[in-house]
Amino acid sequence: MRLHNIAAIARKEVRHLVRDARSLALMFLLPAMMLFLYGYAIRLDIVDAPIGLLQESHDALSNELAAHFEATPAFRVMRHFHDRRELADAVTAHEVWAVIVIPADFATSLGRGAARVQLILDGLDANSARLMRNYVLQLVNDHALRLAAQPGRVTVEYRTWFNETNESRYAIVPGVIVMVMGVVGALMTSLTIAREIESGNLVMLRTTPLTRSEFLLGKLLPYFVVGMIDVMGCVAAAVFIFDVPLRGSLIELAGASALFLLVVMTQGALISLVAGTQILAAQLVQVTTFLPAFLLSGVIYAIANMPVAMQVVTAAVPARYYVALIKALFLKGATLATLWVEVGALLAVLLVLAALLARRADRLGLRR
Q1: In terms of CB atoms within 10 Å, which end of the chain has fewer, N or C?
Q2: How would DSSP label each residue in 114-126?
Q3: In this structure, what DSSP letter does residue 303 have?
Q4: Contact status, residue 301 vs residue 124, Cβ threshold 8 Å
Q5: Could you tell me the pLDDT band of residue 229, with boundaries at 50, 70 and 90?
Q6: CATH class of 49-161
Q7: Rounded to the nearest 10 degrees, what angle do helices 250-275 and 318-327 cross at?
Q8: 357 with 211: CB under 8 angstroms?
Q9: Any alpha helices (H) in 200-299, and if so which ranges?
């Protein structure tokens, strides 16, 4: 082994790294981004989880129990309901993750030795629902001890809406569809356009009557068709293999999926024009598409349980809105009309990305 040969190769590689400033910057930015995202986005406990309270009686013992929930840092009481209709509307709209119902006979039943409290959980995120159930059980038992009552004499009767069996796959399987579309849409699109740039074909296109719209649409159309086939295949697998209920409209689900696919494909095309090489394009897709979709979209970790600053960051993640759409369509049977905020957000992101893509294509000399 000759050291001078090793040194020569090392010097050559250092020069290559210095000349490739974008890859060098990504090598330093990627660890920092991963540390930031994993450190702040991942929370396996409950902090400031939004809940609601329904007190059917306002006696001293009921007020004390309600105050116990309001004082804990685990929960943030968003609303005090007056009836069960308000409660149902709030849980369906995902305004609260859970509702604690203190019945009218709570004080009387406790005086007789046995009382009950009802807990209604939003099962859209099975993991958060389980955590909240455990927190509520602990709080109620602690409160019973303060009242010198046996913990077992205060019973928490819980019911999970939209996921009665508490199956985590109900939330995970629809989320996997987001990852599939990210790979097919952003990664494949970015690689195919970057390949044209690397081979020099993009320069040759300037001498043809082909416009930028024709070039981009021709490139994106096959992957859009493949992406929609993949989505429908994933939906079929979710329903018939994993037994995830599809309570909403399949047509509306296809429409929401098509909108999100256009967003990630436009994002992939923009990344390829910025990167210029397949290797850098793949790295940028990993950083800007896959990681945010996994950590900041609500697929695994609830957004409302993240720090406020991180919740603001998630507003720029397109997958966040599609996750909300697909979960609501699958498990709640919602319609796109009731999910207009998420649909509007995806349309806005699509328009911004399309404008940036057109501007970048202009700079590369493609015809309008």
Answers
A1: N
A2: -EEEEEEEETTSH
A3: G
A4: no
A5: confident
A6: alpha beta
A7: 170
A8: no
A9: 201-205, 212-240, 250-275, 278-285, 291-295
Q: How confident is the model at residue 343 (pLDDT cuts 50, 70, 90)?
A: very high
- In this predicted model, what pLDDT tens digit does every residue of 161-212 receive, in sequence order? 888 777 777 878 888 888 778 777 888 888 877 777 777 766 666 666 667 7
Q: Which residues contact 361 (CB under 8 A, 6 or more apart)?
A: 212, 216, 273
The percent of residues above 70 in pLDDT, for the chain, comes to 84
Q: Where are the domains of the chain?
A: 49-161, 168-363
Rounded Cα gap, residues 358 and 368, in angstroms: 9
DSSP class of residue 306 equals S
First to last CA, the chain: 57
Question: Which residue in this structure is represented by tokens 């996997």?
Answer: 176
CA neighbor of 317 nearest in space, from 255, 233, 260 = 260
| Residues present in the chain in total | 368
Measuring CA to CA, which residue among 82, 120, 84 is closest to residue 99?
Answer: 120
Closest CA to 271 of 360, 181, 161: 360
Is residue 256 within 8 Å of 326, Cβ to Cβ?
Answer: yes
Dist CA 253 CA 248 (whole Å):
8
* Alpha-carbon span 54 to 77, nearest angstrom: 11
With H, G, I as helix, E, B as strand and everything else as coil, classify residue 130. helix
User: Would you tell me how many other CB atoms lie within 10 Å of the CB of residue 207?
Assistant: 7
- Amino acid identity, position 232: M
CB 56 within 8 A of CB 102: yes
Sign of CA dihedral 6, 7, 13, 17: positive
Q: Which residue would you say has higher pLDDT here, 221 or 27?
A: 221
Specify the DSSP class assigned to residue 167.
Answer: -
